């Protein structure tokens, strides 16, 4: 195990010269190579130089260098930080009587560590003196969690958190396939999307989506140990097509000219009735029910007559899915030429 604080830069809120905090991390247990503070509480902090996973620590007290047994620190703890501002507790010891304190803890990641004395030497609780501090690197914990999961289209609901495994997403009809991008919390983990391995942080293979249906995407994360596993599920619903396949506006036996020419993805048109009092429309669609100005019309059949005003008359044609989604087309008809 690597001692991550050995001969690294150490600072303290208090020390008695020449017993600087750097002496507590130089690896020596010579009597003069120690840190000494004359107020308690007190602390020393060490910059490990980078973010590391740590899982154990060791404190060697003054008796290791020949002092009596009561020259051990009573109450102390280890903290971690990424920025020297926000600190979190890692491990703590109370009523210590050991010359060497060696402890393990659940692995955590940190850039900085801080040794805090809450109660000093048994022989004098107002003094703190430390021979040697060691903090040891450990392997990252095995994780089958995702750190992030995103979609090429649509939004996850609810928003992603690693502890939530079931999601939904809605996409438009024009989205006929989708890719997911999973990123593992543990870089050693294996990720499979619908059974096909995907590199962490990279987009998956395209998953085909059926119109008006829900497609299930399973993202399996397998921990480095091969035993830790977690499955995230995304239910993606693609909207029904809701397009007209054709739209004809007729006056008598004649079809009026639409501008622009009909295209199912264009929703607004104009035409001129040439002075005629009414028109009919023939809408065609295989994607849903059709209503013309609120009245149902069978696909491919003639609507009832629509009277025209002397101004512009708007004719609304709706394509409606079984779930109530609507695509609206508007034809603006001028009565006079």
TrEMBL record:
Signal peptide: none annotated. Gene3D superfamilies: Galactose-binding domain-like. Residues 1-138 form the F5/8 type C domain. It comes from the Bacteria. Keywords: Glycosidase, Hydrolase. InterPro entries: Cadherin-like_domain, FA58C, Galactose-bd-like_sf. Pfam families: Cadherin-like, F5_F8_type_C_2. PROSITE patterns: FA58C_3. One of its GO terms (molecular function) is hydrolase activity, acting on glycosyl bonds. This is Coagulation factor 5/8 type domain protein. It comes from Halanaerobium praevalens (strain ATCC 33744 / DSM 2228 / GSL).
